[in-house]
Amino acid sequence: MKTNEQLVRECNELADTFAQMHNHMSRPAFKYYEATHPQEAGFWNMAVAAYDHIEGSDVEAALDEIYDI
Domain of life, per the record (predicted)? Predict the structure, then answer.
């Protein structure tokens, strides 16, 4: 089983992949879940939807638990 940190990190990596697919420069250290730009936030939202669908994990809940610690 993956930790919350792993889920969030992997989902963030997927968001970066989606950004690259839309001709954005790769920013692997960027925290897409903190993005304020609509397009960057959209990459995070797409990654969450895809990751949750494929993995059956609640990435947003994992992110909330990380920040509650």
Answer: Bacteria
